[in-house]
Design a protein that fits this description.
The complex is a heterodimer. Chain A is an alpha+beta fold. Chain A contains 3 helices and 8 strands. Chains A and B meet through helix 2, strand 4 and strand 6 of A and helix 5 and helix 6 of B.
Chain lengths: 225, 397
């Protein structure tokens, strides 16, 4: 590009992104588990390939006279949890308990606790006896291994935690009580459907009344479905 | 009483992975012009315009406002529709509903996606992530849900991995005949079987791509349709169902095979299909329907949905693949267009299923035309189970 021209936004952003990718690639080496290190590396390699190809393609379009404008949208939201979830999160924070609702009509367990039973269309959760506590251990019904994780376009950093993500059917409920949460970073060969897991809670002074009050779920047994 | 309606014009742009030289407005305009050309109409003949795409995938919101100069909606009726993966088909059912009121002469529906302009991953996170519960990037839970479904299909011996590869090859053969398809390369069994493994047993070549492109459809009530088109595709019936009543709503990947409803997407597709059959008096879909377009977000889904749509018995999908019953020359061709695994501009994908079914009925398919099509069906599914289905016929029903 000619030196007297100001770089377009997208060039600056891709260059920033590539800088972040380079740092990330160095940092990967610190990860001990070879499988997870491999995935992180693969994520960065893919991002690098994508950005480098983009720079080439956009450059060609720029030279042909097409303008491409880069926009980054920041969206700070505040969302109210509502009456049922407020109680749920307070109990999670103060008592390290996972609450759920039970429909008085069909007896199905409603989790996450929502104000209406989807089957019976009746209001649930106004009475204290509608609430029940689930166990913080359960069974993995499905899981996600973040093999190629998203790399932020501007910072060039991997988004989210490197942990596998598990679909955990909590004990004390029914087939509907499934929680999606992080799993322990164990050897991937030991990760399969049917593994028994238990929540690892953050210390009380670090809990904020969010799902992240549970750090992750740890494998406790070897039982299969 | 509602009017009988027909599809009179269809327009599709080319589909590719990147299209940096044109804007969203220009891309939509290309599809609209093609649809108008196909119907021999001008934009002045259109009374209402409806648009749909996956909002925020491009970083845009209120696309109906931004697109006005490209879609011709200025001073006309219409609105924007978004129902996840089935967005395009929801636009279709909406334009069908509006045309059937008889209040409009011709109604235009547009669905598009320009995925090279944003991040579908970030977009998904904003649209469909449960703020309170999805701290582990659950918006990507489509993966585990698909994997769980595929594992279940293997477990109950509905299909084998070889058969799925065989089906993928068949899909790629179909796509190679469709000039609008994004991935038109013919695949071999080896290429599919040895492609990169995602979550077992899903492989990268089983999955749909991220495409850029637009699709537009024009429908008109009976009297006007006969004036406009010598070969309209009559829309016999259409249904749209919300599977969103499911109690664990919010985790779209929740695996429900062990519950009474089955996997979520399949549940919606089954409900929509059965509702359509019942309303149209169809008792043997395999015999009574000539060609089917399904929203196959992965090759596994296509096979699962044959069972769910009662085209074959439970656990007989593998047999159907072996018989090549769903190939172009089979007794029940499915996705002669190549389907979503070949082309996936998300907002447009579901509309393309409806459009391709109508194209088959109109006999405008060119190389991908199935012979002797009198009745065609399209079924789609999106996100938290919004499913839509429609039945098209050659002759006025």
């Amino acid at each position: 590009m000619e030196s007297h021209l100001i770089k377009p936004d997208w060039v600056r952003h891709i260059e920033m992104g590539l800088g972040g990718v380079q740092e990330g690639e160095k940092k990967c080496e610190e990860m001990t588990d070879p499988a997870y290190r491999g995935y992180a590396k693969a994520s960065y390699t893919l991002a690098r390939e994508k950005y480098e190809a983009e720079i080439k393609l956009y450059q060609k379009n720029l030279e042909a006279g097409y303008v491409i404008v880069d926009t980054i949208v920041h969206l700070p939201f505040q969302e109210s949890a509502g009456l049922r979830l407020s109680k749920f999160f307070q109990t999670l924070r103060d008592e390290a308990k996972i609450l759920a609702l039970q429909c008085p009509q069909c007896q199905r367990v409603i989790f996450p606790p929502r104000p209406v039973c989807g089957f019976c269309r009746i209001t649930v959760g106004e009475r204290e006896e509608d609430w029940l506590a689930l166990s913080d251990s359960g069974t993995v019904t499905s899981f996600l291994v973040p093999t190629e994780r998203e790399v932020d376009r501007v910072t060039g950093k991997i988004v989210g935690q490197p942990n596998p993500c598990g679909f955990i059917r909590l004990d004390g409920g029914d087939e509907w009580t499934i929680l999606v949460h992080y799993l322990e970073m164990i050897d991937l060969n030991n990760l399969r459907r049917g593994r028994r897991v238990k929540a690892v809670w953050r210390p009380k002074n670090e809990r904020r009344g969010r799902m992240s009050d549970i750090a992750f779920f740890r494998m406790i047994g070897d039982e299969e479905i | 009483m509602s009017e009988r309606i027909a599809v009179v014009g269809i327009g599709q742009t080319e589909f590719k992975s990147r299209w940096p030289e044109i804007s969203q407005v220009e891309m939509v305009n290309l599809a609209v012009r093609k649809a108008l050309e196909n119907a021999h109409l001008t934009i002045k003949d259109i009374d209402a315009v409806f648009v749909g795409n996956m909002e925020l995938f491009e970083g845009n919101y209120q696309v109906d406002m931004w697109l006005t100069e490209g879609d011709g909606a200025y001073l006309k009726s219409g609105m924007k529709i978004q129902t996840g993966g089935s967005t395009g088909s929801s636009v279709c059912t909406t334009i069908f509903d509006h045309a059937a009121t008889g209040l409009f002469g011709a109604v235009l529906g547009i669905a598009y996606e320009k995925q090279d302009e944003g991040s579908s991953d970030y977009g998904l996170r904003i649209i469909s992530e449960d703020t309170f519960f999805d701290i582990a990037n659950g918006a990507r839970a489509a993966g585990p849900a698909m994997a769980a479904m595929a594992q279940d299909m293997l477990k109950r011996k509905s299909v084998t991995e070889e058969q799925i590869a065989q089906l993928r090859v068949q899909e790629s053969e179909n796509a190679s005949r469709n000039p609008s398809a994004h991935l038109r390369k013919r695949l071999t069994m080896d290429e599919v079987m040895n492609s990169r493994l995602l979550i077992p047993p899903l492989r990268i070549l089983h999955m749909c791509p991220a495409s850029v492109g637009a699709c537009a459809i024009i429908v008109a009530p009976e009297k006007r349709a006969k004036e406009i088109s010598p070969n309209p595709a009559w829309v016999v019936d259409w249904v749209t169902v919300h599977g969103g009543i499911l109690p664990p709503l919010g985790h779209m990947g929740v695996y429900l095979e062990e519950t009474e409803l089955g996997p979520q997407w399949a549940f919606g597709v089954e409900q929509a299909s059965l509702k359509l059959y019942k309303r149209c008096g169809i008792t043997n879909p395999r015999k009574e329907i000539d060609v089917i377009e399904v929203y196959n977000m992965s090759t596994w889904h296509e096979a699962e949905w044959w069972e769910r749509m009662h085209i074959c018995e439970k656990n007989a999908a593998g047999k159907l693949i072996e018989e090549r019953a769903t190939a172009m020359d089979g007794d029940i061709p499915v996705n002669p267009s190549g389907g979503v695994v070949a082309t996936n501009a998300i907002g447009a994908s579901a509309m393309q299923r409806f459009a391709e079914a109508a194209i088959q009925v109109k006999k405008e398919g060119g190389d991908r035309q199935v012979s002797n099509v009198k009745t065609a069906m399209a079924v789609t599914a999106g996100g938290d189970s919004y499913s839509a289905a429609a039945l098209f016929r050659k002759s006025l029903y």
